[in-house]
């Protein structure tokens, strides 16, 4: 009796150990991995995906029509190690009947923790203060030196009250936030009830909030939602934080708002492009804290994400229900 033909799986990056182990145990798969922590060059991606039955990819891997054509008719499953899917040509994928797995829920807590950390770091000017210690700027205790803004009795506006938006609000509430506002496609009264959050338009949220946290998905409706008009409506003392996607913000407009003192400060875990060039104007500003997209970067979360991505891939290849399938 002839042995069953192995299914070819291509993995576009080194992934955390739990996911790697799950794939290694799959006796029905032949797994090839781009063995690097750096993004795979496009030519290598095309070579690796050719003839593959399954693809495990990252946010930085653009899966477009050309790549799908190169992959060919064998490709049945794409599993992305992310909750975001804006790197996938979903219409084209749907046309071809390819199933898609993703990793929602598992990174909610880690991302919400990072959002709160970034908000506090930005509003209390921690990187700036730390630098003053190192460069000799700390000469004595001064009543007005290094003053920032506190959360007590404040109004916090959240753009996108989904899983992550709610988790951020839940963590901010004990800081004594007086009022939560949120905006999005539609009111979410059940989710908002826990925080007595009020649904308002984006311009209203900009005008009324002391702190704004962007936690929405990137869609045509949210692309550059935070632009010159948005920043002009914000308070001069307001702090802006983005942990969603870089393209939700017009970065040139943000730079002007920060440089001119139109808004107090900004904290970004996401930018356009990623990585942000080291000569980008935003990096010259003391009132802008930029992190390298580390929202889900805890050991536990990344391991859980990799295991879920591997299990999504294997279930899809075997024609079984995926633990987390994106319904197309």
Question: How are the elements arranged and paired?
Answer:
Layout: E1 7-11, H1 17-24, E2 29-33, H2 42-49, E3 54-57, H3 65-71, E4 77-80, H4 90-95, E5 99-101, H5 108-123, H6 126-135, E6 155-159, H7 163-172, E7 179-183, H8 189-193, E8 198-199, H9 202-208, E9 211-214, H10 228-233, E10 239-242, H11 251-259, E11 265-268, E12 288-290, H12 299-317, E13 325-326
Parallel strand pairs: 1-2, 1-3, 3-4, 4-5, 6-7, 6-9, 7-8, 9-10, 10-11, 11-12
Antiparallel strand pairs: 5-13
Helix pairs in contact: 1-12, 5-7
Describe the overall structure.
With 328 residues, the chain is of the alpha/beta class. It contains twelve helices and 13 strands. It has helices spanning 17-24, 42-49, 65-71, 90-95, 108-123, 126-135, 163-172, 189-193, 202-208, 228-233, 251-259, 299-317; strands at residues 7-11, 29-33, 54-57, 77-80, 99-101, 155-159, 179-183, 198-199, 211-214, 239-242, 265-268, 288-290, 325-326. Helix 1 links the parallel strand 1 (7-11) and strand 2 (29-33). Helix 1 (17-24) runs parallel beside helix 12 (299-317) and helix 5 crosses helix 7. The two termini are 38 Å apart. The mean pLDDT is 96.
């Amino acid at each position: 009796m002839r042995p069953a033909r192995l299914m070819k799986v291509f993995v576009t990056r080194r992934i955390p150990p739990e996911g790697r182990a799950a794939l290694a145990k799959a006796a029905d798969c032949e797994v090839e991995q781009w063995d690097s922590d750096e993004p795979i060059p496009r030519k290598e991606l095309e070579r690796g995906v050719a003839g593959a039955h399954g693809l495990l990819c990252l946010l930085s891997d653009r899966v477009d029509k050309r790549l799908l054509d190169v992959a060919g008719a064998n490709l049945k499953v794409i599993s992305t190690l992310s909750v975001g899917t804006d790197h996938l040509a979903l219409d084209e994928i749907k046309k071809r009947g390819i199933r898609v797995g993703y990793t929602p829920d598992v990174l909610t807590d880690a991302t919400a923790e990072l959002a709160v950390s970034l908000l506090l770091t930005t509003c209390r000017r921690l990187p700036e203060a730390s630098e003053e210690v190192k460069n000799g700027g700390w000469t004595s205790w001064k009543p007005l030196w290094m003053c920032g803004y506190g959360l007590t009795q404040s109004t916090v506006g959240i753009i996108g009250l989904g899983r992550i938006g709610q988790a951020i609000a839940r963590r901010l509430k004990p800081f004594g936030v007086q009022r939560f506002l949120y905006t999005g496609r539609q009111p979410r009264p059940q989710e908002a009830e826990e925080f007595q959050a009020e649904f308002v338009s984006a311009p209203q949220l900009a005008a009324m909030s002391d702190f704004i946290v962007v936690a929405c998905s990137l869609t045509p409706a949210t692309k550059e939602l935070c632009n010159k008009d948005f920043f002009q409506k914000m308070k001069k003392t307001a702090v802006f934080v983005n942990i969603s996607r870089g393209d939700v913000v017009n970065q040139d407009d943000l730079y002007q708002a920060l440089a001119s003192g139109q808004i107090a400060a900004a904290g970004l875990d996401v930018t356009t492009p990623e990585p942000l060039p080291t000569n980008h104007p935003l990096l010259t500003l003391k009132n802008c804290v930029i992190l390298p997209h580390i929202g889900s970067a805890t050991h536990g979360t990344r391991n859980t994400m990799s295991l879920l991505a591997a299990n999504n891939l294997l279930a899809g290849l075997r024609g079984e229900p995926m633990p987390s399938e994106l319904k197309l």
